[in-house]
Specification:
Elongation Factor Tu (Ef-tu), domain 3; 12 strands; 4 helices; single chain; six-stranded mixed beta sheet; elongated; mainly beta; SH3 type barrels; six-stranded antiparallel beta sheet
């Protein structure tokens, strides 16, 4: 399950509430879209005002109903994400990149454990392989064409260049 939003406070007597989107795909929030909470309760959007980030869920009609939902995290499955969120060429889902091996010149440098956005650039956080862990336990690599040679997320491998230099200087 992937977290996509957090329900905020009630903003009207009609059951509307603020929706804090934590996903990179705001277009998935539309009429009849369904989401789940941690307990697998389903919430279906009756309508969503994108500009104001206001949502009205079906069968949630009062301020009291919304107060019970405040701060509730909403989730979707990876399968629903693949179905409802469209990627452009050379774009990948975060969850597909996680756990990919970073390989340079047939040497596994490590495995991606996290992705951080710093300023306008995304960086892979890489747990260094055992063979190289004496240099550094982790290192960061910019997700940039300067370093990425080939992305093979289906086989959980990302081929890079000049990454070992970054590792050695960590």
């Amino acid at each position: 399950m992937l977290e996509v939003a957090i329900i905020g406070k009630s903003v009207s007597f009609k059951g509307e509430c603020k929706l804090h989107i934590t996903s990179d795909f705001p277009n998935q929030f539309k009429k009849n879209a369904s989401f789940m909470d941690e307990k697998k309760n389903t919430y279906i959007i009756e309508y969503f005002h994108k500009n104001r980030s206001l949502v009205k869920f079906e069968n949630i009609n009062s301020d009291e109903d919304i107060k019970k939902l405040a701060n509730l995290k909403l989730y979707v499955s990876k399968e629903d994400t693949r179905k409802n969120c469209h990627l452009n060429k050379d774009e990948f889902f975060y969850f597909d990149i996680m756990d990919c091996e970073i390989i340079e010149n047939d040497e596994v440098l490590g495995v991606i454990t996290d992705i951080s956005e710093i300023s306008t650039m995304n960086y892979f956080q890489i747990k260094t392989s055992k063979d190289l862990s004496h240099i550094a336990k982790i290192f960061m690599l910019a997700y940039d064409d300067k370093y990425i040679v080939k992305m093979d997320v289906e086989n959980k491998k990302i081929y890079v260049k000049d990454a070992k230099i970054i590792l050695e200087n960590s």
